[in-house]
Design a protein that fits this description.
Helix content is 86%, strand content 0%. The protein is built from five helices and no strands.
């Protein structure tokens, strides 16, 4: 009985820094999401709808790809780490973009620019394209395993 516990401990401590790398990767991506949300304000204010949506989709795909790369290249992560990271980052990204879109709508009113956007639809769109690379990666792995 003690051997089994000891083997599990040794097996688990094989990658002692995995948790640190995981949490620091999540933190870096959260900070990047916040910075991207702040950088989106001028685009929301001054670009046309199509240009703004193209920029937002490009940024979401890029950051989603980086997230997918980090999560899947950290050794010995369990399924709950993947699910937690994907859910938390997506929810925070959607909230960040929605808040920045609301702020830009307030600035639109002050600056009298007459270009408003629905913050929740913009946040949803960003979250959808943020998760897209993650879903494609898992779909590819699933099809490859069959």
């Amino acid at each position: 009985m003690k051997k089994k516990k000891r083997q599990k401990r040794v097996k688990r401590s094989k990658f002692p820094h995995t948790e640190i790398v995981y949490w620091s990767s999540l933190l870096v991506i959260l900070v990047c999401n916040l910075l991207i949300s702040l950088a989106l304000i001028p685009f929301i204010l001054f670009f046309s709808d199509q240009s703004m949506l193209l920029i937002i989709i490009s940024l979401a795909l890029t950051l989603g790809s980086i997230f997918t790369f980090f999560i899947h290249h950290i050794q010995s992560l369990e399924l709950h780490h993947h699910i937690f990271g994907a859910l938390i980052l997506t929810v925070v990204a959607v909230l960040n973009v929605s808040l920045m879109a609301s702020l830009s709508n307030s600035l639109n009113t002050v600056l009298q620019l007459h270009q408003e956007i629905n913050p929740f639809s913009l946040g949803f769109l960003y979250g959808l394209f943020f998760l897209f690379p993650y879903c494609v990666y898992h779909g590819y792995r699933y099809l490859k395993s069959k």
